[in-house]
Amino acid sequence: MRMRSFVAPTLAEAMAQLRAELGPEAFVIATDEPEGGPARVVAATAAADEPVPSTAPAPAVARMAEGEPPAASRPSALGALLARHGVPERLSALLRRAEIETDGVTENLRPAIAAQFDFAPIEATQAAPPMLLAGPPGCGKTATVAKIAALFRGQGRAVRLITADTLRAAAAAQLQRYAQALGCGFAVAATTAALGAMTTDGDATAGGDRPIDLIDTPGRDLVRREDRQSLLDWCEAAETTPVLVLPAGHDAEESAEAARAFAALGGARMIATRLDAARRLGNLLAAAQAGGLAFLAGGISPRIAGGLVALDAGLLSRLLVEDPRAVCAALADARREAMPVRGGASPG
Fold first, then answer.
1. How confident is the model over 45-55, as pLDDT tens digits?
2. Which pLDDT does position 16 carry in this prediction?
3. Please, is 102 exposed, middle or buried when counting C-beta atoms within 10 Å of its C-beta (0-12, 13-18, 19+)?
4. What 3-state DSSP class applies to 239?
5. 294-297-298 Cα angle (round to 5)
6. How many helices, marked H, and strands, marked E, lie in the chain?
7. How far apart are the first and last CA of the chain?
8. Is the pTM of this model over 0.90?
9. Scanning 219, 220, 221, 291, which has its CA 20 to 30 A from the CA of 165?
10. Is residue 168 classed exposed, middle or buried when 0-12, 13-18 and 19+ CB atoms within 10 A define those classes?
11. Which of 224, 157, 220, 213 is nearest to 189 (CA)?
12. Spatial separation of the C-alpha atoms in residues 183 and 52, rounded to whole Å
């Protein structure tokens, strides 16, 4: 099997080049059409001594095929990069399936990331369900709740911060300080029944705009059955959208186990924290792939205002190829004045 990469101003032009040069027997493996261009198509065609596949592969926008991928047949810069980040070998092989030997690391990585992972930007919709953040102890859930609140407040939405963390000392006081600085409502839910009542009581602002509820929870080991059941009880009490919060730089296998357990509870999204402090991001890729989770956002700064950005294939690839700490510092500098926080609130 031979692979080729075609680059053109638009995806349609790249596809036209592909058909003109490789003919109808070629099939598309991955596509990438970043905003501002250029577009790129990775395709494969059978060599002279190989049979042409009898059926077409899955569309380029679909996931790469399940099952054990073939081992990489040669050393490559992309393989070395993924190994440096601690990406598990099987996932690394998946990401390298469409690798073109003559292309650079970035050109190979971005379409592979786009094909393998989902990205779901945070949206402050008028009918947004409660968002409940879950994750291991010390993953940065409380600060992330505040960062999401700052993002929504910057869009003019009403927000209420709710803490279900009655285990950690001063957890409620910390979140309440954030709420006051951001102009948000605040409440403590000591039980699942109390949380359910809060999120279905029909409260709204004077303008009739129901606030978006953001729920902070205690740190939990989701691999433990008791912790999973506890989290499920909280999620069901408020009919929430659960979001997994995972810090960068942790063990890839443990992160993958947590993501699989979270997905078993119905969770489908994750937020990556501490991108500004990590050198290796392989655990985040392992978690997203293991749990089938979409990247919702990434924490790029300890600051509350502007400390959270949407993740997409381009930014995630850049974080992997460059020093993630330097990338985050540049992004944070550019956003520093975008969402000022009243009262000068700082993260705890």
1. 655 544 444 43
2. 80
3. exposed
4. coil
5. 120
6. 12, 11
7. 54
8. no
9. 291
10. middle
11. 213
12. 63
**CA–CA separation, 320 vs 297, rounded Å?**
15
> Per-residue b/e over 237-249, b at no fewer than 16 CB within 10 Å?
bbebbbbbbbbbb
Strand, helix or coil at 256? helix
The answer to whether 196 and 171 have CB atoms below 8 angstroms apart is no
Residues 6+ apart with CB under 8 A from 89: none
- The model's pLDDT over 192-204, given as tens digits with 9 standing for 90+, comes to 999 999 887 655 4
The C-alpha atoms of residue 107 and residue 105 are separated, in whole angstroms, by: 6
Q: How far apart are CA 221 and CA 137, in angstroms?
A: 8
Residue 143 to residue 347: CA distance in whole angstroms: 6
d(CA 159, CA 339): 15
Tokens of 79: 């393989």
Q: Pairing mode, if any, of strands 269-273 and 241-247?
A: parallel
**227-241, pLDDT tens digit by residue?**
999 999 998 888 888
Q: Is the pLDDT of residue 70 over 70?
A: no
Residue 338 structure tokens: 């975008």
Which token pair is 165?
């963390």
Q: From residue 150, how far is each of 272, 297, 310 by CA, in Å?
A: 17, 14, 14
Full 3-state SS string of 36-68 = CCCEEEEEEECCCCCCCCCCCCCCCCCCCCCCC
CA gap 114, 63 in Å, rounded: 9
Cβ pair 241, 269 in contact under 8 A: yes
CB 98 within 8 A of CB 111: yes
Kindly give the pairing relationship between strand 294-299 and strand 308-309: antiparallel
107, 335, 145, 312 alpha-carbon torsion, rounded to 10°: -20
Taking the C-alpha atoms of residue 266 and residue 291, their distance in angstroms, rounded to an integer, is: 10
- Distance (Å, rounded) from C-alpha 240 to C-alpha 96? 37
Asked whether the CA dihedral 30, 310, 142, 237 is positive or negative, the reply is negative
DSSP 14-26: HHHHHHHHH-TT-
